[in-house]
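Please produce the structure of this protein holding 2-acetamido-2-deoxy-beta-D-glucopyranose.
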Amino acid sequence: MKVPQNCLHFMWFLHIITAETTAIIRNVITSAQFQEALKSVQPGDYINAQPGDVAVPFRGRFVAASNGTLGSSITITGISIEGQGETEDVGLIIKGDYWIIQGIKIHAAELIIKGNNNYLNASQVSGRPKFGLFLFGNRNRVENCVFTADKSNGTGVMVSGNENSLEGIKVSAKTAIYFGEDSCCGRINEALVSTEMLFLAEVIT
Ligand SMILES: *[C@@H]1O[C@H](CO)[C@@H](O)[C@H](O)[C@H]1NC(C)=O
Ligand SMILES: *[C@@H]1O[C@H](CO)[C@@H](O)[C@H](O)[C@H]1NC(C)=O
Ligand SMILES: *[C@@H]1O[C@H](CO)[C@@H](O)[C@H](O)[C@H]1NC(C)=O
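Below is the modeled complex.
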């Protein structure tokens, strides 16, 4: 069959458009696949674990270093991570920007968000880590999450960045939520705390 040259050009053009806009869904069932997916992920992609497909929680320290973009976030769903129970073991670090973390579970390790403009929803950190969630970045949003940290010396949520918001979270720890003195202009709505102390500094609601 003879295809006109301009038609071929048009098809090539379509191919480029498709390649740039198609999100890849990476289903992971092992820790190694999760590590690999975190390295190769692009803006708009999804990294998924189906709880039923994963025999054991993932083990290790997982780093999300890539950036999504405004309007093309990178999404992680359904991941479950088991730490080693050391008080400062870290399960997942979000170093990048524009990630959506939905419905993940971390046990016996910390969750750290260093990047900006990330969204953490319906997730939980349990066990007895020193920090349930450590928020270094700016403009991150945390909703509907549960953080349990060490009752004798742990902090549920440690906030050291700016303009981070916490909405509808539940916290159990020695210190529930600590806004560091270097932190400005955060927001807390409907936090349910089971704890001895709630330290807040520079919070504007
Ligand atoms: C992600 O974006 C930040 C700016 O917020 C930049 O500093 C960083 O280098 C970027 N990271 C990568 C892996 O491109
Ligand atoms: C947050 O998670 C809840 C529970 O899974 C879900 O119903 C809700 O749509 C999520 N919010 C967003 C903005 O995705
Ligand atoms: C926190 O308390 C636990 C026991 O409850 C202990 O094992 C750990 O060493 C303490 N950590 C620090 C930094 O004091």
